Amino acid sequence: MDSDGTQDARGTQANPVLRPAGPPLIPAMPPRPPAEQAPPPRPDGTAFLTWLRTPRPEALPGVWRFAHRARPEEEPEVVPARQLFSGAVIAFLVGWLIWSLLWNGYLGGWWLLPLYAMIPDSWAQPHSVASVVVVYAYYVLIALVILVGVGRLGRWGEIWRRFGPPAWTRTAPRAEPPPAPAEDPAEWPQLRAAGATDAADRLAGDARAGLMRDVDHARISRAWQGVRTGRHPLATFTGAVLKDGAAACAHPSGARDLPARLASHDLVTGQVRLGATADDARNPYAYRGAGLGLGPDLLGTSLLAVGPPGSGKTGAVVRPLAESLCLNALAGRAAVVVVGAAGAGLGPADAYDVVVRIGNPDSEYDLDLYGGTGDPDEAAAVLAEALVGDLTDPHPSGDSRRSTTVLAQLLGPFRAVHSRFPSVPELRQLLDMAPGPWDALRTGLQGSGHESLLRELDARERQARQPGDVAAVLADRVALLDRPAFAGFFDTSGRSRPFSLTALDHPVRVRVDLPERGHADASRMLARLVLAQFTASVAAREDRSLFACLVLDDASAVVTPEAVRGIQRLRSANAGAVLTLRTLDDVPRPLRGPLLGATGCRMALSGLTPWDGQDFAEVWGKEWIEARDVTDRQIIAETPAGKAVHMLRRVITGKAPTARAVTVRQVERERWSASELAHGVPPGHAVLSLTTVTGEHAPPLLVDLRG
């Protein structure tokens, strides 16, 4: 480089000239991004079609039917390995001995007579190739006959299946051939048989294109049932399918699935998988290892689950059942009401149509204290059950008619004057017979033509002067709801959005959060209110084709004589209830037996107390079993030959030679004793008995809720 700083020919810089620093260098432009990638291809419907075409055979109650393979009723007898191999070796030695005796002529030549009868005399002398081939083929045939005989005698085939190559590798399940078009559920043959070919083609195309989900299939199948029963016209159904395809007949919320699923669901059968039956000797062999699936056919008889905190009632039982019922509601087949403490983990709010957060000022919905009815007597009966149902006579014949009468004497006149029922503060004042509201109510009735209602007020005044009047108790219970935390709730003036259980005529998903923290007594009272309103509402439904279910996460202090009677009536109304208890001590002693008898499905989780186990053992009853009393007496050999035989027998069987005496008798034994329920149920397990709405029973089963 020259003195001015130019480079020389070698490309090196010598004696560079110092220049003032200039502006910073502009970095090089980043490389252009590649062309925008096309969106990922839409998934095809292979997975959905495979799921839909999977066989679901008829099975025993409670068996997960999806891809179920039935097992025999009785467990096959398995020969011990040592005895099996010993018998195989002895059978081989016996066959070898027979062949040796035949080959060496110790048994005579009778076994060659068929050979002499088949070959001509010309083959005898001299020996020809044909005669040699025939003779040795005959020898091989006789050897094979002996080999097959001793093989069956020694159970060589069982050894091959249990310890040979078939047992080394698991064979993949055989792929089922594609069903015929007339039997393929993905082709909607029921629609084609009714003449709706265009609708069937549209649905089949959406299924192959991956646009259909299990909820869509269940929802459209439910709508088709409405067409077959005459509730909906065929033209309307066909038009909706041709317009919207897999999204036709949508749920009022517009949702086609839940935000998330935690359990395995099969919406073709309506089942949810809660685990698997344990491979335990106490379970019937046909149930061992099978999945446990519950659906409306079992929940229609109601379910009672009892277990201490941490045993899995909410996470392993309540949450999956609530999730399944919400999916069935999206399919238009069920209505569900889930009641639990706030933050109990009953599913996200997006999974429900209505979320009532009692005591939370941010709650969008309110709870109708009177169940949406306009009949004062009916409203009084439901409200009395909620307020003082736990104070009535706990015997099954007990009721709350006195409390119902008191409330009816107040609700009827108030509604006649104000065209609505009283709010909580107004009801409390009327029960206390506060002078201002009481006089205003009497004044409003005078001259209005309601003389009979005036007589109700007169009767209420006379009863209030008598000792033991229940109005004071009712007022004290109403005071639990007249708190600042509930100031914006139970409004009857029309300013809020109260939810009423009369909406169970529709596939609605409801969650009610109770304010157990700080308001335990009010929470239990509200739980009784929801249960009473539920049993009254489902019995008054006109369309009972929709399955209705109440899921009550904690039924402590909720079970009353009227509640037990209401649960007994749910089966005939196509409804059911799921109740959980920490212990049966939360139920009055006279009601424990009726409660266990009113529920068709009973679950005892691990950690149960022996006292609770005794109640379950009594309701599950006893069974006749075949008891064997075996007496072994060792045989003493006195001769050398006998001692040798005994030694050989010990080598083969692994046991000393004994003379066995067996006594068989029929005895009656508890299916599950209280001690077994308290100490024999592993963690994460439960013992569950099932009853379907058609009357089929499943014995108490040991179930792994984590399987």
UniProtKB/TrEMBL annotation:
Keyword Endoplasmic reticulum attached: no
Composition skew (Polar residues), residue ranges: 1-15
Keywords, alphabetical: ATP-binding, Membrane, Nucleotide-binding, Transmembrane, Transmembrane helix
Annotated Pro residues bias: 21-43
Bilayer-crossing regions: 89-113, 133-153
Nucleotide-binding found in the keyword field: yes
An example molecular function term from Gene Ontology annotations: ATP binding
Domain of life: Bacteria
Annotated segments matching region Disordered: 1-44
SUPFAM superfamilies: P-loop containing nucleoside triphosphate hydrolases
Protein name per the record: ATP-binding protein
Origin species: Streptomyces griseoviridis
